[in-house]
Amino acid sequence: MTETRWLDERESAAWRGYLAMYTQLAARLHREMQADSGLSLTDFEVLVRLTDQDEPRLRVGELAQALQWEKSRLSHHLARMQRRGLVVRQECPEDARGAFIALTGKGRTAIEQAAPAHVETVRDLVFDQLTEDQVDALAAIADCVLDRLNETE
């Protein structure tokens, strides 16, 4: 058994700062999104994934993978979004067991109305506080950690 490689003080402060930032930022973004548009942050994430496609639809499994959600969580969330008319389930003609989740007109309108306020909140809370070098560093850090996560899956 290998010995635990504990974080030193600098690493621990950075890690705890990141966790506090992530928690507070996610909570604030969720509150602002809900107040501004009536969408949850998770609704917005689903809608963003769909609008990023040339044809605004994805297979359920692809959407689950893109969001890193368990299929059961996604299924429940999509059912709620369907009831609100934001997305629809479409059968897949090539695979009788498969289905697509597609953006509706109401879903497109919802994200188009929510996006400007969301971007302004992100800019205000994050990017307006950072220098260009810090933005570059943030992007590099994210790329490095994501690369490692993808390596180890």
From TrEMBL:
Residues 1-147 form the HTH marR-type domain. PROSITE patterns: HTH_MARR_2 (PS50995). Pfam families: MarR_2. This is MarR family transcriptional regulator. The lineage of its organism: Bacteria, Bacillati, Actinomycetota, Actinomycetes, Pseudonocardiales.
